[in-house]
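To close the section, here is one more complete example, presented without commentary so you can practise reading it yourself. The ligand is pyridoxal-5'-phosphate.
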Amino acid sequence: MSKQQNKLSTICVQGGWQPKNGEPRVLPIYQSTTFKYDKTEDMADLFDLKASGYFYTRLQNPTNDVVASKIAALEGGVAAMLTSSGQAANFFSIFNICEAGDHFVSAASIYGGTYNLFAVTMKKLGIECTFVDADASEAEIEKAFRPNTKALFGETIANPVCSVLDIEKFARIAHKHGVPLMVDNTVPTPLNCRPFEFGADIVTHSTTKYMDGHAGTVGGCIVDSGNFDWMAHKDKFPGLTTPDPSYHGLTYSESFGKMAFITKATVQLMRDLGSIQAPQNAFLLNMGLETLHLRMQRHCENAQKVAEFLEKNEQVAWVNYRGLKSSPYHALSQ
Ligand SMILES: Cc1ncc(COP(=O)(O)O)c(C=O)c1O
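Output:
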């Protein structure tokens, strides 16, 4: 096992919840809608984002935040938030920087639910998406960009076609056009690929899949690398770089720096759209994450054996698995 695999395995088990002396060994479930304060002023400061803390679980909950911090550590990001589903994670990521009249570009080979969200539902909100062949040349993909383009999106390993995204290529294109690269990293999980290391800016997850791992809880997560400089493209991202009237004119980028994206998604989108993950589900997700390193290794070993077996079988017309040398994505995925 490599040094990095060892480190990630340790985070799976020990990351997130760090009990102090005498505190519970296992992450507690904060099954509480509200949090108690002695003074009205304490609550007022939380409402106005002058202090950090918890007051209402629709926005934030301590159990969720601990699990989000474990996923942030696994991905190597600066901040993360849990959502009620993977759909909510992808919706929030785009909607956090796109509004009516804006446009974004996405790889065409993505999960069908995400495709519908981008092609049909986002359109009803006035946000248009252009789909591109992720394997096309940089010049070809760049043709999809417009002056009002705000993001580039792709899946590391697309569900269900299993194509592998050239994250470095996508990051180059996104950054050339002054927009962040968002990568849905559901299928490989950070145990097999950490998109920030290849230039992605925002990572999303459907934690419903391998992260939970027991088919028990639907959930999602958004992680920010903290690397995208919103202020360098001030005019493109007014939601992050100009005052928010719903917080007395606070500007997220100025007040929260590298935490701006996740803070806005939490205090504005989660407040208004309410897609929080239930703390019970976050607890179960954390249990799943504790064995993610073991399960992913076994999944990959099993899949490799099945793929090799099928490839040798004369009755099988074709096998699509990136672990096989015959896959056009073999070299890229290595
Ligand atoms: C790659 C990917 N992203 C997002 C989603 C949506 O996640 P959820 O079902 O948790 O809403 C899925 C679901 O299959 C998926 O496979």
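Once you have examined the tokens, check your reading against these statements. Residues 155 and 184 are 5 Å apart (CA to CA). The chain has a mean pLDDT of 97.
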